Amino acid sequence: MRTATMTGHSGFTLIELVVVLIILGVLAGVAVPRFSDLTDRVGLAEVQTQARAIQTYNRINVLKCQSNGLRCTNLTETGTDNGGACKRNADDFFLSEDLSGWEEKYGIETIESTNKTEEERRKRMEELINNDNKNVTSEAALFTLTRYADRENPNEFPRELPCAIYKRK
């Protein structure tokens, strides 16, 4: 009688191959959704980071008055003559901060940047404050109008226009 021997043969049985394929299928079924979720989370984190950068940029536009209360620093752009209310002067501008909790203290008249220097605008700001015989405390802030991002030039930072001085209610 002859005995069958497996000398010289090497390889995997069909059952071993099927088991390996099943294991790979289970791993792929678990891993693929996690990786696709990871790319979504990375994209969301990037958008949130950009939104925080824009929010920070807009908050920088609120200029705190010095503690002596007479002068706001960094007044470099023109304001808008708005009859005592801080309003949008164009469709593509918005207030840099939420005004809830603030009341208007002083409006800033329009001062054309072509006609006035920064020092002249600061002097006019002081006149507006001093003529009202009220003290602007360190709680006062200068709110600005900020232009929405330009669709043609999305990387260009928006332009700000000082609008009015507000104080905490």
UniProtKB/TrEMBL annotation:
Coiled coil regions, renumbered to chain: 108-135
Keyword match Signal: no
Xref: InterPro entries: N_methyl_site, Pilin-like
Source taxon at top rank: Bacteria
UniProt key word Cell membrane: no
Membrane-traversing stretches: 12-32
Alphabetical UniProt keywords: Coiled coil, Membrane, Transmembrane, Transmembrane helix
Alphabetical list of Pfam families matching this protein: N_methyl (PF07963)
Designated name of the protein: Prepilin-type N-terminal cleavage/methylation domain-containing protein
